[in-house]
Amino acid sequence: MKYVPVRLALVLILVVCEASVAATLVHNQEEYRQAVQDARAGDTIMLADGEWRDFEVLFTGAGEAGKPITLTAETKGKVILSGQSNLRLAGRHLVVSGLVFRDGYSPTNTVISFRRTRGEYAYHSQVTEVVIDHFTNPDRHETDFWVMMYGRNNHLNHNHFSGKSNKGVTMAVRLDSVDSQENHHVIDHNYFGPRPILGSNGGETLRIGTSKYSLTDSFTVVENNYFDRCNGEVEIISSKSGGNIFRGNVFFESRGTLTLRHGNNNLIENNVFLGNGKRHTGGIRVINKGHTIRNNYLQGLTGKRFGAGFAIMNGVPNSPINRYHQVEDAVIEHNTIIAASNIELAAGSDEERSATPQNSTFRNNLIFNEDGKNNFNIYDDISGITFEDNITNTKQVARALEGTSYRKVELREAENGILYPASRELKDVGVSRDLRVISRDDTGVSWYPKPDQRIRFGSGSKITISPSDSFDAAIISAKPGDTVMLAPGEYIASRIQVITRPITVRSTNPDQRATIHFERSSLFQIASGGSLELADLKISGRLAPDMVGNSVIRISQTPSIGNYELAIRNILVKDLTTNHSFNFMTASRHTFADTILIEQSAFENITGHVLSLSAETEDLGIYNGEYITLSGNRFTDIEGTVADVYRGGTDESTFGPQVELLNSTIERVGRGKRNNSGASVNLFGAQRVVIKGNTLIDSGGIRNVETTGEPKITITGNKFRNTPPETQVQ
Ligand code: CA
User: Fold this and answer.
1) Distance of CA 654 from the midpoint of ligand 1 (Å)
2) CA 282 to ligand 1 centroid distance, Å
3) Distance 238 CA to ligand 1 centre (A)
4) How far is ligand 1, taken at its centre, from the CA of residue 604, in Å?
5) From ligand 1's centre to the CA of 149, what distance in Å?
6) Which of 96, 131, 383, 398 is the most exposed place for a label (fewest CB within 10 A)?
7) What average pLDDT does the segment 367-373 reach?
8) In sequence order, what are the residues at sequence separation of 6 or more whose Cβ sits closer than 8 angstroms to the Cβ of residue 191?
9) Other C-beta atoms within 10 Å of 89: how many?
């Protein structure tokens, strides 16, 4: 009898405890700090809806299994961390959800870090439904990271990461202390949105480990994530540790590959790579020992060499830890490879990388090509790979590989969007019927939109003006995708037009092109977010100020976020002659063009260059533009070059610059006394060059300096009159 009150008291205490497990809504940073200090296992702290500017969130605490401490938003998606903000977690059983990082960048080197400081990590903690959207350092070559996972048993799921355009991997798992090794982290259902071309090493989307700790196991699981146009560099994922699992991920139109760069015994299964024929899309690259690669579907991948649809590399004998360990004991089975431009075996074979793959198996794979070509490139002895029971629809492939039989194969699309052989006879080759393809919508968060393609030129409305209207006002009023249409006549720009969105300027009538004059040092300055299309116009430099270094188009010297595009068609540019070094277009340091296209245009009387893309002079493997195409143009009386493109350094992780000069006439170009190269076209370190069908008259020669990688250079079918032939320097 006398024990009853004690029991009652216990019950009461439990009830009180339950009641005290409550959500605390905080409205400012001071209230937040107090709430964190007071938080007990099972508590929730909610940030009030609204913008939290310059908030470096430190979230520490000791939750318990089943009773975590949670930091979340009053309403998911309505709490915006902007300006100089970031998040650190340290402790146990912590959960963060519902936050959006946008309109700013981290003042430190990380946006979300699973540690407070070196040695003080998070364990059994989770970050879920968090958005990082273009929260990117405006200096594209200043390095930072969006997510750094430390500690053990942490979970990163259903997050949305999109638009990182500066240097540094989007996210990394770190193994640099014992407390972070054999970590068993799980990374699943995240949406890795478009990452633009970085134009340098350091543009990976996910890295696990570093070469230094690469013989250590990480045991990280990466599954059911969606990699959407992750184009940063040649490695989308760089696995640099052992015991990882990459399963059920989709790689959609992403340039680069899942690379087993360092470390052993990784499993890659049930992944789907959809290149859709986009340039430089790749699949899987195999290096090191003991990997299993099975039941992956690879389709429409155009990459080659280290960026190929599938590559097994040669190693370095007794390799240092940061070079290439020999491939041994690889099992590669039940994969379907459809329309891959290149499958590379013993890739990278050279004097240093002479250790061929050993004791490996390639079996039950389906190789399907529509073009009837052998897409296998074999660079060394591949007798260490046993080929068994593979099927191909291409006789040339069957001839090149043992254990690979030719069959007529008819493919049919199944409900999961995957192509399978129609014949039941072939049901055991290639990927399994039950392969699940995760959809974009099943990753990330439902309450934050996933980005579509960038806004196209001409997709908006038309603003038509006549010479009596203000040119400046019309450009300023143009919204993203709008076209400013100029009726025939003359226009004067009296200010530099800063372009921060994609816009088009063109004449209403291509046969009566309007003329634009400008009174400042530039007509257009492309800044963050800007892209420009010009068509059917005349541009004169006659009214430009009498100073050195004017430029019709200049790329903003302040660091810019994101890449830009420049498209020019049927324009006449003339009289860029007030003072010397007057360029048509000038790139600035740490700016990057995805594409520059100039066609059917004429350039006359210019004291500088047409295109000056040589602002990255530090020889760090960086450059100013990826695809530069000049086609069907006429260049006359130009003191500088048609194109001055520079990429220095020895790094091999980029695909560009890629320069095409086609079917153009080049007359009296390149012989100005300030043009040090003395060339009419001056290319240094370009990775792909096509110069074809041009006529050069009374001009400087074509200068192309090959530096690093295996550049593909085609200079052919050009006519040289009173012009030195091309000089290629290797
Ligand atoms: Ca890399």
Assistant:
1) 9
2) 14
3) 7
4) 42
5) 19
6) 383
7) 92
8) 159, 160, 161, 162, 225, 226, 228, 440, 443, 444, 445, 450
9) 27
Q: In one letter, which amino acid is 551?
A: S
pLDDT tens column, 116-146: 999 999 999 999 999 999 999 988 889 999 9
> From the CA of 531, how far away is ligand 1's center (Å)?
28
pLDDT tens digits, one per residue of 518-534: 999 999 999 988 999 99
Q: Mind giving me the DSSP string for 111-133? A: EEESEEETTEEEES-EEES-EEE
Average pLDDT, the chain: 94
* The one-letter amino acid at 644: D
Query: Separation of 244 CA from ligand 1 center, angstroms?
Result: 18
What pLDDT is stored for residue 11 in this prediction? 43
Q: Is the pLDDT of residue 4 over 70?
A: no
What is the rounded average pLDDT of the residues 249-268? 97
Check if the beta carbon of residue 518 is closer than 8 Å to that of residue 460.
Answer: no
Name the residue among 107, 100, 187 with its Cα closest to residue 149: 187
Give residue 621 CA to ligand 1 midpoint distance, Å. 12
For 14-40, what is the mean pLDDT? Answer: 80
Ligand 1 centroid from CA 188, angstroms: 22
| Residues ≥6 apart with Cβ < 8 Å to 115 | 88, 89, 90, 121, 122, 148, 150, 151
Does pLDDT of 348 surpass 60? Answer: yes
Mean pLDDT on 195-218: 94
| Nearest-angstrom CA–CA distance, 343 and 283 | 10
**Residue 370: pLDDT above 80?**
yes
Distance of alpha carbon 319 from alpha carbon 313, whole angstroms:
13
C-beta of residue 553 within 8 angstroms of C-beta of residue 585: yes
Amino acid 21: pLDDT = 53
What pLDDT is stored for residue 212 in this prediction?
93
pLDDT digits (tens, 9 = 90+) for 293-315: 999 999 999 999 999 999 999 99
Contact 697, 723 (CB under 8 A): yes
| CA 43 – CA 93 distance, rounded (Å) | 11
Roughly how many angstroms between the first and final C-alpha of the chain, as a whole number? 98
- Report the pLDDT averaged over residues 383-388: 98
CA of 205 to the centre of ligand 1 (A): 10
- 672-708: pLDDT as tens digits: 999 999 999 999 999 999 999 999 999 999 999 998 7
Give 323 Cα–ligand 1 centroid separation in angstroms.
Answer: 13
**Residue whose C-alpha is closest to residue 409's, from 511, 398, 547, 700:** 398
CA–centroid distance, residue 203 to ligand 1 (Å): 7
Q: Residues 82, 52: contact at Cβ < 8 Å? A: yes
pLDDT for residue 709: 76
When pLDDT is averaged across residues 565-581 and rounded to a whole number, the result is 97
Residue 234 Cα to ligand 1 midpoint, Å, equals 7
Q: Which residues of 356-380 are buried (b: 16+ CB within 10 A; e: fewer)?
A: bbeebbbbbbbbbbeeeebbbbbbb
Measured in angstroms, how far is the CA atom of residue 169 from the centroid of ligand 1?
9
CB proximity list for 469: less than 8 A, separation 6 or greater: none
Tens-digit pLDDT profile for residues 88-104: 999 999 999 999 999 99
Q: How far is the CA of 255 from the centre of ligand 1 (A)?
A: 12
In this structure, the chain runs to a length of 730
416 close to 437: Cβ distance less than 8 angstroms:
yes
Collapsed DSSP state (helix, strand, coil) of residue 307? helix
Tell me, in angstroms, the distance from the centre of ligand 1 to residue 651's CA: 9
